[in-house]
Each structure stands twice: as C-alpha cells, then as structure tokens.
C-alpha cells in the first residue's frame, strides 16, 4: 500500500471528460446519463484499499443524502487483474456495502488518466453543466481509524445545491495509489 495524495490536473471550471463504462449492474454508462441534476460527484475508488473501506460508509451516506440532487458515481480504475479487483469483486463490494449508486469499471484506465485521478478515493464534484467545482477529500479524517471533524464534501455539496460560493482551496484526498496496468 502506497499512501498517495491527489493532485490537480483538471482545473476549476473544466468540463468533465466523457466516458463509456460498464457498471456492476451490467449497464453501460456515459457522462450524458447524469445530466439533469444539480451536480455530479465522481469518486475514483476500488475494492481493496483500506482508505476506501474507511470512507465507503461516508460515501454511501452522501449518496443517500444528496442522490436526489447530485448524481454519485464510483469508478474503479485499478488494474482488473490486481488482487481483489475486477468486475466480480466490484459486484460483491457494492452488494456488501449497500451501494445504490453506479459503480463502474475503467478497464483501460483511460478515464482515470483523463481526470488526473491518482489515489483511491479521489473525489471530483461537478456542477449541473458538468464543470469542475471541487476536487478534494470526503472529510478530514485522513488516517485510517481517525474521526472526521470536517465533512468537506457534504459541506461543499450543500454550498453547490444552495448556490453559495464554493471555496477554491484544494484539500487533497489521501489513499492508496491507483494500481496501473504495466
């Protein structure tokens, strides 16, 4: 496990790169499938990472709280051959954690590269025009087992959906590095 900090490739105001990816439900999804809501939260995540496992409850709660206004999507860009990864493991992971949002496989890793995703979890929040408004952490509990005192993404989504100014301060996520195909 290599602790990796997210970095900014997409800049605030950049349009979300399009994709066409298969979900654990067998459906193919593209960016246009998520138009019509006030926002879009894309989280690069995986099955085996202890940082994702530590944040998955918070991610599921974000979807439960905001899913009617903000589409939530999980994208797994890890090498599908890496231990614990791949579509079958994703299906099990999603089922065990009661994930109701789309969980998609980026088999070629091209989507992660287009977004500049580097770690898991690595969240990106877009507005209704699918322009980046925030790239950063779910909360400030950055070490496994620590308790969050600032619920960064929840507060940012609140600001987005109520029309408040969103801070442009970059608050990077920390997690395992994406397992790149060699």
How would you characterize this protein structure?
By secondary structure, the chain is α+β, with helices and mostly antiparallel strands. The chain has a single domain, classed as Glutaredoxin, CATH 3.40.30. 24% of the residues lie in helices and 24% in strands. The protein has helices spanning 50-66, 87-96, 110-115, 152-162, and strands spanning 3-5, 20-23, 28-30, 39-45, 70-76, 103-105, 119-120, 122-127, 132-135, 174-177. The strands form 2 sheets. Strands 3-2-6-5-4-8-9 form a 7-stranded mixed β-sheet, with helices on one face. Strand 4 (39-45), helix 1 and strand 5 (70-76) form a beta-alpha-beta unit. The chain is globular. The two termini are 17 Å apart.
User: Could you please say which CATH topology applies here?
Assistant: Glutaredoxin
Spatial shape: globular
Quick one: CATH superfamily?
Glutaredoxin
Major sheet description: 7 strands, mixed
Element-by-element helix/strand order = EEEEHEHEHEEEHE
Structural class: alpha+beta
Mean pLDDT: 93
Q: Low-confidence spans: pLDDT under 50, at least 5 residues?
A: none
How many helices in DSSP terms?
4
Radius of gyration equals 15 Å
